[in-house]
Design brief:
Elements: H1 2-16, E1 21-23, E2 51-54, E3 57-70, E4 76-85, H2 87-97, H3 101-123, H4 135-165, E5 169-181
Antiparallel strand pairs: 1-3, 2-3, 3-4, 4-5
Helix pairs in contact: 3-4
């Protein structure tokens, strides 16, 4: 079964590399009871959660970004990152500033997320773990370490973005999508769409 999961994740990454972001249209029927929305966790299986709770607000999954970076010639990582936003904030900003402002927001989010990913990869120990009981455990440990480092690296930028724009967001690593390189880095930054 784990092989099937790895194949599924690999297929998802191939699909994601075709573009840097993908818009997710929220299912409004599932948003009728926001107090029952699940929180995103590090081990959210193989499917991203459609919503998460942040500061008492329900945020909807609005984008999936893929990205990758090399730490050096041998080590690096790539994977998917989930962008969540508050639908009430989106509607208010559309009304006040028009929908075109979201293109500018998307560029800002991509830029600070890319910087946070590079910083997280630089501080993550990507060397093979001699104490791991197998490849799956090693992958899980690396994914957890990189996820934590990314969350720490992106937190200030998310906070600043929210203060400047009035849009409540969160950028969350999708740990099960991560691919790590230890014998030659092939991770590249995805080019933003124009």
């Amino acid at each position: 079964m784990k092989t099937n999961i790895h194949i599924l994740v690999g297929m998802m990454l191939i699909a994601l590399t075709a573009c840097s972001t993908q818009e997710i249209k929220p299912d409004t029927k599932s948003l009728s009871a926001p107090d029952k929305a699940p929180a995103v966790t590090e081990d959210s299986n193989q499917n991203p959660a459609p919503t998460l709770i942040k500061g008492g607000k329900t945020l909807n999954l609005v984008r999936i970004m893929d990205g990758g970076s090399c730490k050096n010639d041998f080590q690096g990582a790539k994977g998917a990152f989930l962008v969540y936003a508050a639908p009430t904030d989106i509607e208010r900003i559309k009304h006040d500033k028009g929908p075109k402002i979201f293109g500018e927001f998307e560029t800002k989010i991509q830029n600070f997320s890319t910087q946070a990913l590079q910083k997280a990869i630089n501080i993550t120990n990507l060397a093979e773990d001699p104490f791991a009981l197998g490849a799956d455990e090693a992958q899980q440990k690396l994914a957890k370490q990189l996820s934590n480092n990314f969350r720490n690296s992106v937190a200030d930028a998310v906070h600043t973005f929210q203060q400047e724009t009035g849009l409540t967001i969160d950028v969350v690593p999708f740990a099960s999508s991560f691919v790590f390189y230890q014998q030659g880095c092939e991770a590249t930054h995805a080019e933003p769409e124009n």
